[in-house]
Amino acid sequence: MNKVLKNSWALFLGMGAIMIAYGFQGSLLGVRAVKEEFSLTATGFMMSGYFVGFFIGASIIPKIISRVGHIRVFAAFASIASLVILIHAIYISPFVWFLLRIITGVSMVSIYTVAESWLNDRASNKNRGSVLSVYMIILYSSLGFGMFFLNFSDPINFEPFILISIITSAALIPILLTKRKAPTFKKIESMSLKEAYDASPFGIISSFFYGTIQAALFTLLAVYAAEMNFSIFQISIVTFLLAISGAISQWPIGKLSDIFDRRYVIIIASFAAAFFALCSIFASGTMHLPEGLASSKFWFYIFLILFSFCSLPMFSLILAHTNDFIPKEKFVAAGASLQFTFGMGAMGGPFLCSIFMNIVGPNGFFVFLIFFHLIIGIYGVYRSRIRPSIENPDSQFVAMPQSITPAGIELNPTTEPIEEPKKVETEKPKILNTN
Prior knowledge:
Layout: H1 2-35, H2 40-68, H3 70-90, H4 94-122, H5 128-147, H6 159-170, H7 172-176, H8 193-199, H9 201-227, H10 232-259, H11 262-284, H12 298-311, H13 314-323, H14 331-360, H15 364-386, H16 406-409
Helix pairs in contact: 1-4, 1-5, 1-6, 1-9, 2-3, 2-4, 2-9, 2-14, 3-4, 3-6, 5-10, 8-9, 9-10, 9-13, 9-14, 9-15, 10-11, 10-12, 11-12, 11-13, 11-15, 14-15
């Protein structure tokens, strides 16, 4: 572990700063949209722009990296992300923000791809599981920590936007000053959607619907909290609890999926997440009323943690389940296909969730989560009855962030082995015999 940190500290430090800025930005835009009195539909439309950009960027960025290299791509798109957030403070419009969110999405997927392919190049067969674990811990902890920057200044001011730009720009410094040579970009092939669907219908369908859930969950939770009259500090607590509890739950739930039928673990987790989302609605009670009249938020926090604990490991579970039905050499290709379907679902998630909130009220946020978790669970029950589970010794659960790219999926220790770093031997000088 020490060797992993020593070899990749600059990259981890830079990505930590990027995720602090990203976590701060997501909460800030949601709260600011409420304060600017954007309609819920307009807010959902605006927030969905990020996932449109992420989807577009995932298809074009490999070609750009192959042409100009990792360092230039990272520097360019981190700079663009730093610039774009400042424009949000100048032009206050849902449509303009939607376009800016698209650019942010393209920038972030570019940054992820560069970082993860760089980590993959630095990893060996012995330590890539450790590299992935450290990377995931840094991503989630930095994301959660970034939520508390919401207390830096009133979201209605321009200072928070400047701080996000500063943090994003600062992330460039350790990475651009690293001595290590950038890796040669390796193109990763993906399976066709038909091939992936034939291998695991449940994997592809559940990945699509889970993308819808995830996109709405991380973009509109702050909007829900603001609509329920949470203070800025309480909003930061809610978003922090979501990120951290979801990260912690990956390992215990993943271990269960390696012991029991993975499909049943996904089904139970889906129904449990729907149940705790329902409990969150009941726990919300009158907590939206002014101070003195509002009910306690304690049980709401508890049920949100339990919901996150069940829901956030879902992508890694779905990926591991899909790998149960395919040979080891196709793990990365299948992961790329799952990311593609996840992205398709994510593009419509925030907008669709905002429609639920428009019809039902703020708690439409949880009604949306209940509905789509039930779809995954019910479809899982149907698939388990028509197709038996398969014992695949090469497949096991590996915790991964939902933002992982195909380059990052290669860090999974169960994928096709990567070559060990080669040591260059210097030729020893010959000693001439003068006798």
